[in-house]
TrEMBL record:
Name of the protein in question: Acetyl-coenzyme A carboxylase carboxyl transferase subunit beta
Organism: Planifilum fimeticola
Primary gene name: accD
Keyword Nucleotide-binding: yes
Gene3D superfamilies: 2-enoyl-CoA Hydratase, Chain A, domain 1
Cofactor: Zn(2+)
Length: 265
């Protein structure tokens, strides 16, 4: 049994899973792990993972970092906070990256940045559309400036992908904050978010203290950002796969590789 944190409705775990972990009473979106997200996104759950063995080091010898990494690996069965690879969605091949907020709050250390940059490069080489699902607390404080550098690295890799005219769809899930919101997750050709997702750079209190103003209640929600032009769509999880298929289909038929109009036109 699982209790909805928003409306308090109690549902069977199995039923909740069948509904993609969306509350049937109030549509609250429970968070999905990376393996769960992949399973409900790619065709028949078939996924070929990239760089599965890439593991974080402890370059700054930050107290307890190694033991925290080890604990998160045991808890999640993952080596890092992002899983990247390729699969098909509705028959369309795509390079896919999924962050997992259970691992160090989905923070972006060197390995997360590196895996995302490599996935972007794979998408550029194979000319497969790239789809990244973000869920992140921001920078990985235990990696200091090395963590911040990942913002530049992933953004630069995406700029090259953009010049190659390969589609990038960013899917922002709850929460997408800090350095991830300020880098790759906001750089999609199409930026989609799940309903109710918290998306923003700094936290509400920090901003309120800085600007000395009270912020609206829905500030930093997906719906607020959609209203203010920072997102293209807010799509319920139960419609997300179909939406992605539609986008991939439009893209496959619309533009050919060199970005020119199809010769038939
Ligand atoms: Zn609910």
């Amino acid at each position: 049994m699982q209790k909805c944190p928003r409306c308090g409705a109690i549902s069977y775990a199995k039923e909740l899973e069948k509904n993609l972990k969306v509350c049937k009473s109030c549509s609250y979106h429970f968070s999905l792990s990376a393996p769960e997200r992949i399973a409900v996104t790619v065709d028949e759950g078939r996924f070929f993972e990239y760089d599965a063995d890439l593991k974080s080091l402890d370059p700054l010898e930050f107290p307890d970092y190694k033991s925290k990494l080890k604990k998160d690996m045991e808890k999640t069965g993952l080596k890092e906070a992002v899983v990247t690879g390729e699969g098909t969605i509705g028959g369309f091949p795509a390079v896919i990256g999924v962050m997992d907020s259970r691992f160090r709050m989905g923070s972006m250390g060197s390995v997360v940045g590196e895996k995302i940059a490599r996935a972007v490069e794979q998408a550029a080489t194979k000319r497969y559309p790239l789809i990244l699902f973000s869920a992140s607390g921001g920078a990985r404080m235990q990696e200091g400036v090395l963590s911040l550098m990942q913002m530049a690295k992933t953004s630069a890799a995406l700029e090259r992908l953009h010049r190659e005219r390969v589609l990038f769809v960013s899917v922002l899930t709850n929460p997408t904050t800090g350095g991830v919101s300020a880098s790759f997750s906001s750089l999609g050709d199409i930026n989609i978010a799940e309903p109710g997702a918290l998306i923003g750079f700094a936290g509400r209190r920090v901003i309120e203290q800085t600007v000395r103003q009270k912020l609206p209640d829905d500030f930093q929600t997906a719906e607020f950002l959609l209203k203010h032009g920072q997102l293209d769509m807010v799509v319920p999880r139960t419609e997300l796969r179909q939406t992605l298929i539609k986008i991939l289909e439009l893209h496959a038929n619309g533009g050919n590789d060199d970005g020119k109009r199809p010769s038939a036109l």
